[in-house]
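Late entry, evening session. Most of the bench is empty. Finally got around to the prediction I had been postponing all week. Sequence below, unchanged from the version circulated by S.P.
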Amino acid sequence: MDRRHFAGTEAVVVAIREVAREFGLGMRTTDDIGADQVSRRTSAGAFSITDPDGSLPHEAFVELSGFPAVTVQVFPDDDAKITVDGIEFPDVPRDSVPAFLRSVHTGMAHVKGTVFPPGRWLMVPLPGDETYKELVPRGTLSPWLSRSARR
C-alpha cells in the first residue's frame, strides 16, 4: 500500500494531530530542536546546535489522551518509538506512524498468546501486510491489553 512520505518531524506531528482529531483524542507535544537537544545526535560537537551539514535536527514527543495510553517519540533519523500501554515499539518508520495509530485506535491491534515460545505478543497490523509485534512482559497485562486478547 502507498503511504504518504513525511519529509520531517513536523510533518509527522501534523499527521498525528489529524489522527487524534479523527478519534477525538487530546494531544500534547514537546519539541526539541538542535543537535544539543535531541536524544540521538552524537555526531555534532559539544555545545553545537546544528549537524555537520548545517541543518537543525528536530525531535518531538507526543502524548495522546484516551485508552490505551499512547506516546510517540519521533526522531530526526526517519523513525519513531511508539509506546502502547507500556509496550515499546522501537524503530517504527516515520511514514508508518499514522497507520500504526489508526490500527491501535480502530481495534485492529490485539494481544496474541503463543504456546511455543510461551508468551503474549501485542500485534499491530498495518495495511499492506505489515505487522509490528512486541512481547508483553509477564504480569503487565493492563485492562486494555486484556480486552484486546485474541486466541
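Two things to note before I forget:
The CA atoms of residues 42 and 103 lie 33 Å apart.
The mean pLDDT is 84.
Will write this up properly tomorrow.
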